[in-house]
Write a structure and sequence with these properties.
Two copies of one chain form a homodimer. The first copy, chain A, is mainly α. Chain A contains six helices and three strands, in the order H-H-H-E-H-H-E-E-H. The first copy, chain A, has helices at about 15-20, 25-35, 35-45, 55-60, 65-75, 100-125; strands at about 50, 80-85, 90-95. The termini of chain A are far apart. In chain A, about 30% of the residues are buried.
Chain lengths: ~130, ~130
């Protein structure tokens, strides 16, 4: 059973470590979904607005249809993404961030931005 | 060849997408390392201070020796972690964040904190 105090902002180090560092911690699944290779890119893409499945696929170099669909299902189940299927032929399916999704996308994008901006410093480390 | 302007803070959307969304983008490797299951936890653990290999392993529920060593090697090559091996018997190896590592660890931790704090909202979405 989850300790209710973990919802409080000021987590003690012991609470934090006891949580995220535990193999059974439910935070790990969410972390896995949003930081997966395609999860990060989906969240950033959807921050720019609603996308169709085919648009997302085109935007992400190298993603397979299966992996894109799987990652979207994770994000939908976690409440970060809403899927809207229009009853038309051919099928028209759109994906949009929820308010919860907008919040986490900001954190994910802050990390991605840092990496892009500091990549020259990382590459300098590698060449040493 | 990498576009030099991507090092500038104000990236246009086109530059960003052309970068991170490209399969050949070098940012992707860094993103993969720091958001890997163990990469996240190592960065957060080392934010609390220097750790020995055995201490890190104990702290992370479920990590194998091989995966921990592999992830530490990635983070060391990227310039986020410094490895110090003392010439003693038995071997004594310590890991510490570099200044670059401290910066990225802050972004990674902000994301992890968000997830821990908002987990009840995510779990409420799942149960719907």
């Amino acid at each position: 059973m989850r300790d209710l105090t973990t919802g409080v902002r000021l987590l003690s180090e012991q609470q934090r470590d006891g949580d995220l560092f535990s193999a059974r911690c439910p935070s790990r699944d969410v972390l896995k979904h949003v930081t997966s290779r395609w999860g990060v890119l989906i969240l950033i893409a959807l921050q720019r607005g609603t996308h169709r499945f085919s648009e997302l696929r085109r935007k992400m170099g190298g993603v397979s249809e299966k992996m894109l669909a799987q990652t979207l299902q994770w994000l939908e189940a976690d409440g970060f993404v809403v899927r809207h299927a229009y009853p038309v032929v051919p099928p028209h399916v759109e994906y949009t961030l929820t308010p919860l999704g907008v919040e986490i996308a900001e954190k994910v994008e802050a990390l991605a931005d840092w990496i892009e901006i500091n990549l020259p410093r990382v590459e300098a480390s590698r060449s040493q």
